[in-house]
Design goal:
This protein is mainly alpha-helical and 117 residues long. The chain has 6 helices and 3 strands; from the N terminus they run ββαβααααα. A 3-stranded antiparallel beta sheet has the order 2-1-3. It starts with 11 loop residues before the first strand and ends with a helix.
Length: 117
């Protein structure tokens, strides 16, 4: 299932988050720019080893659980969801895991206190 909508059998991926999405949502991700979401076709594009490692480090279920924990719903519009501090942190979580680096994201409560100061 697409990470951003209920569409089944997603054929596109955002390497930045290690998630799979449908064609329509991939267009929305492409419009965000590669600095926020690097999109690849599951079948038509050649994949680098580093990109595959990010996909293995991510996954739609992990992504959705992380965003839910930080108060960002699946239904949040794509342009809003991927322009959040939570999205920035999750990109780092995926990159660190793919590179074998240790990274501990701030807790949701730490995020709350940072945004209110």
């Amino acid at each position: 299932v697409c990470v951003d909508c209920p569409m089944k059998n997603p054929q596109w991926a955002s390497v930045s988050y290690g998630v799979f999405m449908c064609l329509e949502c991939s267009g929305k991700h492409r419009s965000l720019g590669v600095h926020l979401s690097y999109v690849r076709s599951v079948n038509m594009d050649a994949w680098k080893q580093t990109e595959l490692k990010k996909m293995l480090a991510g996954g739609n279920a992990k992504f959705l659980a992380f965003f839910k924990k930080y108060g960002v719903a699946k239904e949040t519009p794509v342009t809003e969801k991927y322009n959040t501090k939570v999205a920035e942190i999750y990109r780092e979580v995926v990159s660190a895991a793919a590179e074998g680096r240790k990274y501990t994201p701030p807790s949701p409560s730490e995020m709350q206190s940072q945004s209110s100061s």
